[in-house]
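Task: sequence design from structure.
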C-alpha cells in the first residue's frame, strides 16, 4: 500500500473503528431481552424510522416513542436510554493509535459517521473523542448519511483537504468503495493490527518508524 502523495488527513468511522457500534442489532437484541420486548416487532419499527433519526430529523424522544413507547411499558424512557448509552464501549488501541498519529504527523482528523444525535454526543463526550478529532461530519449534524457520497464530499470541504491526501478508515466494505470512487484511499478496518500495518506501509508510523504494542 505504498503512497507517494503525503497524507495530511485521516477520515474515520466511529462505530466498529474507534468504538463499538452505538445501537446495532446486537444492542437492540440485548435491550429486547433486558426489557422483555418483542424483538421482531421492535426491529420492524426500528428499520422504518432509524434512517430518519440518524439524519437528525427526529429526537431520541421521538425515536423511542415510535419504536418502544408506542404503548405503555413497565419501565421509563430514562431507564431505556441509560441502557442504550451503556452499550457503547471503546477500542482503546485504535483511539491511542489515531491520537499518536495526529501528533507525530500533524494530521487533521475528521469523523465521517452515521450516528444519531444524542448517541453521537454521548459517545464524543464519554470517550473524549473531541480531544483528537478536529471535525465531526456526523449524519445527525449534516442531515446526509452514508452511503450518500455527498457526506464524503462535505467532509472534504470541511477538512479543506484534496481527496488524494486523505486516508479513510472504515469497517463497511460498501462505504470503502464509495470513498475510493471519489479518489479517497481507504482502509477496510477489520482489526487493530492490520490497520496499524497498512497505515505504517504509507508512512504513518506512530513512533519513529517503530510500531509498538499499546497495552
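Answer:
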Amino acid at each position: 500500500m505504498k503512497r507517494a502523495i503525503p497524507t495530511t488527513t485521516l477520515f474515520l468511522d466511529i462505530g466498529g473503528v474507534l468504538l463499538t457500534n452505538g445501537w446495532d442489532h446486537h444492542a437492540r437484541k440485548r435491550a429486547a431481552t433486558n426489557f422483555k420486548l418483542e424483538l421482531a416487532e421492535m426491529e420492524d419499527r426500528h428499520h422504518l424510522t432509524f434512517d430518519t433519526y440518524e439524519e437528525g430529523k427526529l429526537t431520541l424522544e421521538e425515536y423511542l416513542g415510535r419504536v418502544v413507547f408506542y404503548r405503555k411499558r413497565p419501565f421509563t424512557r430514562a431507564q431505556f436510554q441509560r441502557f442504550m448509552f451503556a452499550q457503547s464501549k471503546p477500542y482503546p488501541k485504535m483511539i491511542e493509535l489515531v491520537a499518536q498519529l495526529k501528533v507525530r504527523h500533524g494530521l487533521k482528523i475528521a469523523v465521517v459517521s452515521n450516528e444519531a444525535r444524542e448517541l453521537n454526543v454521548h459517545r464524543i463526550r464519554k470517550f473524549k473523542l473531541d480531544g483528537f478529532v478536529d471535525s465531526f461530519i456526523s449524519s445527525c449534524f449534516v442531515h446526509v448519511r452514508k452511503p450518500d457520497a455527498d457526506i464524503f464530499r462535505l467532509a472534504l470541504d470541511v477538512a479543506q483537504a484534496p481527496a488524494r491526501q486523505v486516508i479513510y478508515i472504515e469497517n463497511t466494505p460498501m462505504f470503502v468503495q464509495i470513498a475510493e470512487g471519489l479518489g479517497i484511499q481507504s482502509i477496510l478496518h477489520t482489526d487493530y493490527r492490520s490497520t496499524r500495518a497498512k497505515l505504517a506501509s504509507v508512512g504513518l508510523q506512530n513512533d519513529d518508524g517503530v510500531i509498538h504494542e499499546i497495552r
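The chain has two domains: 9-20+90-201, 25-86.
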